[in-house]
Amino acid sequence: MLEVAGLTAGYVPGLPILRQVSLTVPEASLTAIIGPNGAGKSTLVKAVAGLVPVEGGTVRLAGRDITGIRPDRMARAGVAYVPQSDNIFRGLTVRQNLDLALRAHPGAARGRVAELEADFPVLADKARVRAGALSGGQRQMLAVAMALAGRPRLILMDEPSAGLSPRAAEEVLDLARGLTARGVTVLLVEQNVKQALKRADHCYILAEGRNQVDGPPADLMADGVVAKIYLGHTRMAPA
Amino acid sequence: MIQHLVDGILVGSLLSLGAIGLTMVMHILRFANFSHAELLSLGAYAALVFDGVFAAILPPLAAQIGPLSMTGALALAVLASMAFTGASALVIDRLVFRRVRAKGGELSMVFASFGVALILRNAVGLIFGLHGQLYSKDIVFAVVLSRDPLLLVKPDQIAALAVALVLMLALHLVLSRTTFGYALRAVGENPGLAQVHGVNLTATIRWVWLIGGGLAAVAGIFYGLSYQITPVMGRDLVLPIFAATIVGGIGSIYGAVLGGFVVGIAQNLALVALPSGYSPSVPFLMILLVLLIRPQGLFGEGRA
Amino acid sequence: MIGLISYLVFFTTVASILAIAVMGLNLHWGFTGLFNGGVVASFGAGAYATLILGGTPQAGHLGGYGWPWPLALAGGLVAAGVLAWIVGVLTLRLRRDYLAIATFGVAVTFENVMRNAQGLAGGAQGVRGFERPLQDVIGTGLSYNVFFLAVTLAALILTYVVLERLVRSPFGRLLRAIREDEEAARALGKSPTRVRLTSFVFGSVVIGLAGGLYGTFYAFVSPQDVLPILTFQIWAMLIVGGAGNNRGAVAGTFLIWGAWTASGWALARFAPVEAQLYTGSVQFILIGLVIVGMLLWRPEGLFPERLAPASKTADDRGKLEPGSVT
């Protein structure tokens, strides 16, 4: 579904944060990216979303080259992105947030807002509330609902559980997991390694802007490799 | 006293229109645009030219509308001038601000805006002369609304207030009822996220200039209709309009509306206590007062 | 020949006074990244206070305290500093364009009050009755102007040396650090607001010094001397010279002041009589074009700072970076 090949990207030309990162995300699966702080995980999803300039490599969605297209055109290309923080418009009401997200998809059915509100009942209850007044978990729900508005094929989530209570965090991650059942492909960056590995189909470990290892979560846990990276004992050679 | 209050409301509505565009630019492009007030004078002079053209082409239009000094030609000229001024704002952005934005920080833009203001103001003075001008040489008498206390209002001023209120209502409906309005607000709050949700920033910025320029033109025309049109009206209005945005809270459109009225009323009520020569100082005193008591303004969200 | 020399003396004196003001602004804009939209308020405060404190008694308005000149000038510096302190305290902790708006407001209000307050500073007629220092010893005319040029040049050199030492001192490095990266400076435990306030007040005092010298030189100051155009001229001088570079600031001052007086002379000489009314407009447009043109084509000035390159200030809102805004 999503194929990233040899991606080199960064904010400042000539100073790439990501070097030659490659990954594949199969359709309707949940793939997690984990790695230590500063590994370039967030930069990776931002580069896929068109928010960080790409210096080399390609990003393909279902075979179509979407490398570096403008972020406001990504949504129409079928890619949705949920930033880590500030991912809703606090000054708009919940309903206005959803309406705005749907604006990018003129083809979307009229009842789409009702559908989203049926999926996220809390958003229906709070439709007229300013989004800034929502709780942390509710905000993530709204952010995910906004991302789903245009029925994306791929949804990129940047640490959706950051700053949430353990319970709300699990809820959000369960939600991400549940999306694959509806045919959505999910690429998830997560600090909460244990929870992420519990739900992911496949997992990539990133460090210093490069691919390290990848595999099904069970294999990675068996390797003990994850623990090593996180404890910082071993500096691995690039994969 | 009551006369000052009424005058303040009438002027305030025009300051509000000017402040709306300014606060939008300050919110979305994040710089204090000192050339915004020049758009008012640009709009006023553009209407003067369009008015002459329309009256010449279609003489019936030169007749006054009811009790107003305003003619059909001038009413049409208002629309033409809104388009012209909005387009001018866009052109100025493309020629100057967009290019400075690409190179430097916000403060370079503030700097550039002073330069733009100097050029616009003096170019208008060179083209149209430094003397004041009027849309109509016919004297329209003020209407006595009440004799005790004496309350005089010119019909034109009532029309200006009505038009200003209608425009504000229209803008309110756009912002609160249409996805286009949501997009404008979204870009003001978080341009990056707005892009992620498919909002085209370039197009939105274009709209901000068009709306801001159009409203500034209306404000300038009615200001000219109430007093006179001069090349220095931008210079005289820049501080009151900035005061309106600060009183309301920078970035808040509703704040700008309220701020305009507050500043207009304060400037007129001050005439009760201060000699009229001090009137230009009142907006600054209002700014100081707001910064002391409530720096984020009435509707602001603190340090934005 | 004498005519030329006395004109050169006059020109150099005024340009040197303005160069002091430009260096004061440079501390604000070039070294600290503060936008001062009301240079003329500090300049005016220095000039008015010097003349009011040092002048002979005048009927009808405050002043005429007859203080010795150095004391009167010091009073001018204090006046400029106090005014800057008030504005700075109120605005420096806010979003950065508040300072631009507030300082612009101070300048407008200063001019407005001076024009109207008869009892304070003579209103539109301005402040007169000032005896220039040592005039009774040196006499008037060219000899006095040469003497005053020496005084001005001494002040210019002193200002240059003090400011150069300041920007090379730890405090100067702090200013630069805050200009480049406020968060990092904050992390080092420095209060950016307080450092900015110090810089703002000190720069304004330097501008006040220029104002005090200006008032002394003409022995007269009126609201006509504190019109907003002076702020724009001083900006143009700084931006042409290159913000962050004091030598450039001085060079830019002489260049722009030369161009201004030359264009004024040329317009007065060659423009048709009926167009004379508009020479001011033409000159103002030129100043506007210099400001905009420099920002567009040579934002680093003709004599750029050789130290660190001035970088864009980071967007500290902690939000997503907008993608391509074209």
Q: What does this protein structure show overall?
A:
- The complex is a heterotrimer of chains A (239), B (304) and C (326).
- In chain A, strand 7, helix 7 and strand 8 form a beta-alpha-beta unit.
- By secondary structure, chain A is α/β, with parallel strands linked by helices.
- Chain B has a single domain, classed as ABC transporter involved in vitamin B12 uptake, BtuC.
- The radius of gyration of chain B is 19 Å and the shape is globular.
- Chain C is an all-alpha fold.
- The termini of chain C are far apart.
- Chains in contact: A-B, A-C, B-C.
- At the B-C interface, helix 3, helix 4, helix 7, helix 8 and helix 9 of B face helix 4, helix 11 and helix 13 of C.
Radius of gyration of chain A (CA) equals 18 Å
* Radius of gyration of chain C over all CA atoms, rounded: 20 Å
Biggest beta-sheet profile of chain C: none
- Content of β-strand of chain C: under 5%
Distance between the termini of chain C: 57 Å
The general outline of chain A is globular
H-E string of chain A = EEEHEEHEHHHHEHEHEEHH
Secondary-structure-derived class of chain A: alpha/beta
Oligomer: heterotrimer
Number-wise, the strands of chain C total 0
In whole angstroms, how far apart are the ends of chain A? 23 Å
What level of helicity do the residues of chain A show? 25-40%
**How many helical stretches of chain C?**
13
The coarse overall form of chain C would be: globular
- Strand-residue fraction of chain A? 15-25%
Number of strands of chain A: 10
Helical content of chain C (DSSP H or I, runs of 4+) = 55-70%
Main beta sheet strand tally, sense and closure of chain A:
6 strands, mixed
Q: Residue ranges of chain C: pLDDT <50 for 5 or more in a row?
A: 307-326
Helical segment tally of chain A?
10
What is the N-to-C order of secondary-structure elements of chain C (H for helix, E for strand)?
HHHHHHHHHHHHH
